[in-house]
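Structure tokens please, single chain.
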Amino acid sequence: MLIQLQQKLLEHCVAGTTARAAALFVGAQANTANLF
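Here you go.
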């Protein structure tokens, strides 16, 4: 996974965004976002 994608997912998770919404915003799969 690209570092930029990891950083964006982390930003959304810290902000309290759900994994599904964060994945939608950054273009990743929801299961990938669940790892964060």
